[in-house]
Q: What sequence folds into this?
């Protein structure tokens, strides 16, 4: 084998390691020699922050699990014990609770960036799909985790969402019982949810590795959507993007710290500080904010199965995005009509989220229904049509040419 | 395209090195300040540490008998020593003790020996509370895990244990009533 | 930002809780020891704890027994369990107050408004259920709790005049503290973290700029 002669390192210990496990060269390739378009904006640091948040969630989660008791008689009290008795328990719990919200915030920005700059387009379809799988696992993890404190919202959220499965014809009820380990949300379900909530993040971690692997295969997209052509177009990841990611992380941490220390219950519901009571449903059940748009879609269809199907479809349609969007040009910067549609779509998602937070009555339902209709019209009619016929304008020759102009500004 | 250090001016190099050093130092402080509370959370919680007191009525314990009570999740040995046991404990020469302590310094009243019933070797509970159990070569306790022998003052005499069994804080509330966990 | 609890008000609030609220409402997540944090002395806390009877055991005969409370115990509630509480209150459950300001939209303000918001005569269009009281701040407007803070129901140890408003203010302070005993430490740490992280962000910005300066320069020249 020529491996020995390829070993480029001088230090004997480094050589020794490299010969047995080429991990040193692996890190050099992924950090130093990995060439990245030089024009990535701060939106491209979202992936790194999301990865950072995953680690924060796993670490704080493991520490919380050391004190948490997954049993209906003790769950609420054990969380309260963490808040009052465990050293810095309040800090760790608030890190975890607010972390979930900010994690979603960052992931949504990451996804919207991909959509705006066409990062899901060939040859990055799989990268996008793996990302969507991560998103699905993340939603499941968040839902399971929200049940654990066993407050009123935990309990009723779990009841309502798991009851969705009864919408499935014939086998729905059996699936529900299988999921809950009982015909109702109780001790078996809580214990099971805890086990799964602990497991899924590690699955996410694995998927993140595959996500990065896929990313490094074809490299990052960039704000112009034009692939790098010459050496002039790219720079090494380290140090340029390590310092940029670092700056993003620190700025992000300022915001994170603000919520933890000064508004720790901003994203939460007061109702969840009331212990779960199977006899009393709270007046307004709302999911956490990051589920609100999907929740609004669920409620928009006045049919049990229909609502369920619509909600699932609203997520599944994103998987197909690389084939729904037919345009050869990635970045919406050079596709004015699609760009306008993108912002209308964002507005639609915000309206959905707003409608999802409102009680299910009167005009809120009608607004939710219109917004739901538009959501599907966007993906199933507008994007396929516009992407086929729209003429791109101002597409630059190379990303360097575009970057040069933006540097002069 | 790689802008190396050499492309910077002398002043620029110094400046960047200084900023890098500052950022590294602050990053270190940050990592430490994050790690500290996280690690602290694994230490005993406030309610676990909260003052825990066990009251024991000594009256039913006859001379020569013993009682085991639980204090802070650990067994505490209470032995009503006989005159002979007291004499043995007091007469032991200091030179024969791996962890020299006088018997007087280990009791409040000579007939009552109160020690945490945990072998100082690796934490097993020694035998000898019942008369039917082996009490080791010195008439106190014998740890079956690795063969440590304790005398009638709970002091290590033979075997791998490094120190004497620990005397917990306790106080006599009345003639026959002690409170473990409250020092006198 | 650096909110602290008014110690004197919190202590008076404890007195209101003890003499008025505690006959129906528990405070089960709070240990007596924590009262030291709002300024009670160790001896006072010991005396307060000893006023309560704590169910403990089993003893050597296997029986449960009552003993005086210790500072390390949590507050003993007025009822054995939820059913007993409902049975004693015409089916309404007086909630535990340990988390009351966190568990209600509006928090401490809601609590104060509720305590001072009772109206003797309901508006004409309200059909008051027998055994309920009219309070516009309570969801639905009809609350099972009788107006608790009547003139002179408490005589303050520190000589403050116990008007209903004063009592409502004090007990709200006490219960806000009971809900978030970590608040003061949290905000103090928060200030330190925000300052440190802000400076660190500035340093990282300078670091990033020092590297990117060359890239930007080269790109705009080429």
A:
């Amino acid at each position: 084998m020529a491996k020995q002669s390829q070993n480029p390192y001088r230090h004997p210990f480094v050589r020794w390691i490299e010969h047995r496990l080429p991990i040193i060269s692996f890190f050099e390739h992924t950090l130093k020699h990995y060439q990245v378009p030089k024009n990535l904006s701060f939106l491209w640091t979202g992936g790194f922050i999301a990865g950072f948040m995953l680690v924060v969630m796993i670490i704080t989660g493991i520490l919380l699990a050391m004190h948490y008791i997954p049993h209906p008689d003790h769950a609420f009290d054990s969380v309260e014990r963490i808040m009052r008795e465990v050293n810095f328990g309040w800090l760790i719990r608030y890190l975890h609770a607010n972390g979930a919200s900010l994690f979603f915030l960052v992931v949504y920005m990451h996804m919207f960036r991909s959509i705006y700059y066409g990062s899901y387009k060939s040859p990055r379809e799989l990268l996008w799909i793996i990302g969507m799988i991560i998103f699905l696992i993340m939603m499941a993890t968040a839902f399971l985790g929200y049940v654990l404190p066993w407050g009123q919202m935990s309990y009723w959220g779990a009841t309502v969402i798991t009851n969705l499965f009864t919408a499935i014809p014939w086998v729905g009820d059996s699936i529900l019982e299988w999921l809950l380990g009982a015909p109702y949300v109780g001790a078996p379900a809580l214990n099971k949810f805890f086990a799964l909530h602990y497991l899924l993040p590690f699955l996410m971690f694995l998927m993140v590795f595959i996500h990065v692997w896929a990313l490094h295969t074809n490299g990052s997209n960039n704000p112009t959507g034009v692939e790098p052509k010459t050496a002039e177009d790219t720079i090494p990841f380290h140090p340029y993007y390590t310092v940029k990611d670092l700056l993003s992380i620190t700025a992000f941490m300022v915001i994170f710290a603000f919520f933890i220390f000064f508004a720790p219950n901003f994203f939460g519901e007061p109702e969840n500080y009331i212990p779960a009571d199977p006899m009393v449903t709270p007046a307004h059940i709302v999911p956490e904010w990051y589920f609100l748009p999907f929740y609004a879609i669920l409620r928009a269809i006045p049919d049990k199965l229909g609502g369920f199907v619509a909600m699932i479809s609203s997520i599944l349609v994103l998987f197909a995005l690389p084939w729904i969007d037919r345009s050869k040009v990635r970045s919406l910067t050079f596709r004015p009509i699609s760009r306008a549609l993108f912002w209308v779509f964002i507005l639609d998602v915000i309206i959905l989220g707003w409608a999802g937070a409102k009680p299910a009555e009167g005009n809120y339902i009608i607004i939710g229904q219109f917004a739901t209709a538009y959501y599907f019209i966007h993906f199933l009619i507008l994007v396929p049509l516009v992407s086929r016929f729209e003429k791109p304008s101002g597409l630059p020759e190379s990303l360097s040419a575009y970057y040069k102009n933006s540097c002069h500004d | 395209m790689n802008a190396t250090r050499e492309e910077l001016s002398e002043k620029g190099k110094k400046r960047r090195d200084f900023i890098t050093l500052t950022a590294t130092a602050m990053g270190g402080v940050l990592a430490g300040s994050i790690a500290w509370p996280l690690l602290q959370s694994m230490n005993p919680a406030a309610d676990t540490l909260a003052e825990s007191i066990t009251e024991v009525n000594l009256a039913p314990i006859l001379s020569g008998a013993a009682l085991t009570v639980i204090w802070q999740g650990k067994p505490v040995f209470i032995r009503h020593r006989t005159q002979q046991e007291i004499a043995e404990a007091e007469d032991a020469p200091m030179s024969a003790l791996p962890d020299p302590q006088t018997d007087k310094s280990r009791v409040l009243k000579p007939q009552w020996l109160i020690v945490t019933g945990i072998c100082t070797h690796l934490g097993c509970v020694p035998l000898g509370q019942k008369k039917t159990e082996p009490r080791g070569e010195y008439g106190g306790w014998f740890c079956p895990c690795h063969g440590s022998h304790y005398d009638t003052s709970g002091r290590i005499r033979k075997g791998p244990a490094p120190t004497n069994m620990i005397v917990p804080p306790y106080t006599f509330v009345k003639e026959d009533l002690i409170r473990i966990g409250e020092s006198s | 930002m650096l909110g602290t609890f008014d110690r004197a008000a919190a202590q008076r609030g404890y007195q209101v809780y003890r003499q008025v609220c505690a006959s129906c409402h528990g405070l089960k997540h709070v240990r007596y020891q924590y009262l030291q944090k709002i300024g009670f002395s160790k001896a006072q806390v010991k005396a307060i704890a000893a006023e309560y009877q704590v169910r403990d055991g089993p003893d050597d005969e296997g029986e449960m027994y009552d003993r005086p409370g210790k500072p390390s115990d949590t507050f003993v509630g007025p009822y054995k369990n939820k059913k007993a509480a409902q049975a004693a209150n015409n089916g309404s459950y007086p909630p535990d107050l340990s988390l009351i300001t966190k568990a209600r939209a509006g928090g401490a303000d809601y609590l104060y408004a509720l305590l001072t918001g009772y109206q003797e005569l309901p508006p004409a269009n309200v059909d008051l259920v027998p055994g309920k009281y009219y309070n516009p701040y309570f969801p639905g407007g009809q609350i099972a709790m009788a107006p608790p803070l009547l003139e002179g129901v408490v005589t303050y140890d520190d000589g403050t005049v116990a008007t209903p408003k004063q009592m409502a203010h004090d007990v709200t302070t006490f219960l806000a503290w009971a809900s978030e005993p970590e608040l003061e430490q949290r905000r103090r740490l928060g200030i330190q973290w925000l300052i440190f992280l802000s400076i660190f962000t500035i340093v990282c910005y300078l670091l990033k700029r020092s590297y990117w300066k060359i890239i930007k320069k080269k790109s705009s020249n080429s």
Observations:
- Chain B has a mean pLDDT of 90.
- The first helix of chain B runs from residue 10 to 40.
